[in-house]
Design brief:
Layout (H helix, E strand, L loop, with lengths): L14 E2 L6 E2 L2 H11 L18 H8 L5 H7 L11 H11 L14 E3 L4 H4 L11 E11 L5 E11 L4 E8 L4 E3 L2 H4 L3 H4 L3 E2 H13 L4 H5 L10 E4 L2 H8 L8 E3 L16 H8 L11 H16 L11 E3 L4 E3 L15 H7 L17
Parallel strand pairs: 4-9, 6-8, 9-10
Antiparallel strand pairs: 1-2, 3-6, 4-5, 4-7, 5-6, 11-12
Helix pairs in contact: 11-12
């Protein structure tokens, strides 16, 4: 043992993640953390100390914690979690950030409302770089089977990005309804007496979503579906299953599955919670209204999509002080990783999810 070494002059070196600020005693532990954390510019990030968080919920908890709460309480928006130059500018911003509750359709609306699209108005083949447009969907279910537990779609609603009602209809169940779930749906037998058959509903929805594009082109992920529209919803798999429809996964935008919108234990929040927390109003205070839910999920999608992130800086080529390292197909398996700084490790990391802000990028970008 070297008795000449002063332990006070050689404190144990800590290896700190430059994204989430976690510290590790060993460099290999930091590297392992970076491999599984998927830090990227698309993660929720504190606007004050710039710490990365995995979920918007954990970012909210951080902003209300001891380190950044003083600034956030004075200058931060509780809805979009942005920071403003003063409490006055924050208050002015919140006048627009807190939205009004949509006016529900109710159950006395005409059985079917359908508006035809002007395809060229939404997508002009002669214009380069058009981004995909979105359509929001919501379904109301009644119960079938002896115990009323089978999910039968009885009502469907679609709205566009401008909150315009595109399609609404009651749906004729394919088996007898044994539970109308009136307290939730507000539906009774008379609403479904002259309802549209499910097959016609399917055709109409696909016509809207495909937007004149062929089925083959819609399925090609490399083309982002061409002219086809993004489908926005909360619990889309359930709605599509009850409608007996399929739609390419790369064109789905589900607020119940989107990583940053999950709880810190990776479980889904309800649409009611997300609307209150990020839009500032309450929904589903009595019966569920499909138009109200459609508009709310579209607003939520557009708010998340509109987040501004810095230009993508991650890549497979890492420049160091000594040389340029061209990483292999499995960059984390390279021996050179041990020599990289925390900043260079962060540059190697990439997002585990497709950020919705990318939907605003044109197809030619």
């Amino acid at each position: 043992m070297d008795t000449n070494v002063d332990p006070l002059q050689n404190p144990a070196k800590r290896h700190k993640c430059c994204a989430c600020y976690k510290q590790y005693k060993k460099k290999e532990h930091l590297i392992e953390h970076m491999k599984v954390s998927y830090h990227s510019i698309h993660q929720p990030r504190c606007p004050i100390c710039l710490k990365h968080c995995k979920f918007l919920e954990s970012l909210r908890e951080h902003l209300l914690g001891p380190s950044c709460s003083d600034i956030f309480s004075e200058q931060g928006c509780q809805l979009c979690l942005r920071i403003f130059g003063s409490s006055g500018s924050r208050n002015e911003h919140m006048e627009f950030c807190r939205l009004l509750t949509p006016i529900p359709l109710g159950t006395s609306v005409s059985p079917t409302v359908s508006h035809e699209f002007d395809f060229q108005d939404s997508y002009d083949e002669n214009r380069v770089g058009m981004r995909p447009k979105a359509i929001a969907i919501d379904c109301e279910m009644v119960g079938g089977g002896s115990d009323g537990s089978l999910e039968l779609c009885a009502r469907v609603c679609l709205v566009d990005e401008d909150e315009k009602l595109i399609f609404h209809t009651y749906v004729q169940p394919q088996m007898p309804v044994t539970n109308y779930r009136y307290e939730i749906t507000g539906l009774a037998e008379e609403h479904l007496r002259d309802a549209m058959p499910l097959e016609q509903v399917q055709q109409k929805i696909l016509q809207i979503l495909h937007n004149g594009e062929s089925i083959g082109e819609v399925r090609l992920e490399s083309l982002d579906g061409g002219k086809a529209r993004l489908l926005v919803g909360h619990g889309l798999a359930h709605d599509l299953d009850c409608l007996k429809l399929s739609y390419p996964e790369h064109l789905l935008r589900d607020t119940s599955l989107y990583g940053p919108l999950l709880k810190t234990n990776s479980v889904s929040h309800s649409l009611k919670y997300l609307t209150r927390t990020y839009l500032g109003y309450n929904i589903q205070t009595s019966t569920h209204d499909p138009y109200e839910d459609c508009v709310s999920v579209m607003r939520l999608y557009k708010r998340i999509r509109g987040q501004v992130h810095q230009e993508e800086g991650n890549g497979t080529s890492i420049s160091t002080a000594s040389n340029d390292i061209i990483l292999e197909s499995d960059p984390w398996g390279s021996k050179e990783v041990d020599n990289l700084t925390p900043d260079e490790l962060y540059a190697m990391s990439s997002s585990a999810f497709k950020c919705w802000c990318l939907d605003l990028k044109s197809r030619s970008a």
